[in-house]
Amino acid sequence: MEKNVLLQIEYDGTGFSGWQRQPGIRTVQGRVEAVLSGLLGQDVTVSGCSRTDAGVHAKAEMAVFRADVPMPCENLVKALNDRFSGRPENPSEDGDIRIVFAKEVPDGFDIRGQVAGKTYVYSIRNADAMPVFLRNCRYLVKGELDVEAMRKAADHIVGTHDFDCFRAAGGNPVETTVRTVTSVEIRTSEAIDMNGAVSEGRDVFIEVSGDGFLYNMVRIIAGTLVEVGLGKRDPDEMKEIIESRDRTNAGHTAPPQGLCLEEVDLSVQ
User: What is the dihedral of CA 163, 223, 158, 136, to 10 degrees?
Assistant: First the structure.
């Protein structure tokens, strides 16, 4: 029976060259399509809501496909995860993809058109050294970050603005660079190692929510806020950076491993 199926996918982006399918290169979209096609015995094309870059992670990538699916969605989830699991009986799989859920959606469901908002979290280890087992999910920043200054700078980001200053070259063409950022929250916690023990330094998490994001926008926001936190920029400079609409006025692009697509708000559930 042909179905239109929505998937929530989580993945560790370390071993992938991003989401988007590329010939001969390991990508999340390509891997999901290959496993679905093998399971269902037909060519399957998956459309995702967000094209994450190489090294970027996701807890809530949303994707849709249409195919003849001869099983309930809950059985489809189990069958897919068995193939993604990295268990000894499937030694060719790395276990870096998991399907959170699958459900039928109406015909003509437009995954990009249904996205009402997204939330990304950028994770920083603020210390002199990075535990080796966290190197793929944190950005190491040495030198104590002034989090209150970062929060003051972040206040200027919230709202509807032309965010061309936070757009990297090389992305897909866009009709407009105006976006609405609904919130920017900066949280801190004790640094915890992989064994749950308190480690040196602290973790700083930058959570950014909005109706959509430009290419590398959150990573450039994170890099600019880090420069504020290190005292290299005044917090009120953020307003001038945004008004300039000039990428060269913003800070560096923070590395990909600190970024995770945390949540996607679909207007139709």
Answer: 110
Catalytic residue among 12, 53, 96, 203: 53
pLDDT tens digit string along 240-257? Answer: 999 999 999 999 999 999
Residue 199: which residues within 8 A CB-CB, separation 6 or more?
127, 131, 190, 191, 192, 193
Report the pLDDT averaged over residues 214-240.
Answer: 98
pLDDT in tens, 29-63: 999 999 999 999 999 999 999 999 999 999 999 99
> What is the value of pTM for the model shown?
0.94
CA distances from 156 to 28, 137, 179, 203, 225 (A): 34, 27, 14, 23, 11
Cα distance between residue 95 and residue 83, in whole Å: 9
Query: What's the CA gap between 85 and 170, in Å, rounded?
Result: 34
Mean pLDDT for 98-110 is: 93
Residue 53 among the catalytic residues: yes
For the chain, the straight-line distance linking the first and the last C-alpha, in angstroms and rounded, comes to: 22
Among residues 145, 141, 143, which one has the least CA distance to residue 258? 141
Radius of gyration of the chain from Cα atoms? 20
List of domains in the chain: 2-104 (3.30.70.580), 115-266 (3.30.70.660)
pLDDT in tens, 71-101: 999 999 999 999 998 765 555 567 899 999 9
Rounded distance between C-alpha atoms, residue 267 and residue 117, angstroms: 9
Phi-psi region of 27 (alpha: psi -120 to 50; beta: other; left: phi over 0): beta
User: In the chain, which residue ranges form alpha helices assigned H by DSSP?
Assistant: 28-40, 73-84, 147-155, 217-229, 237-244
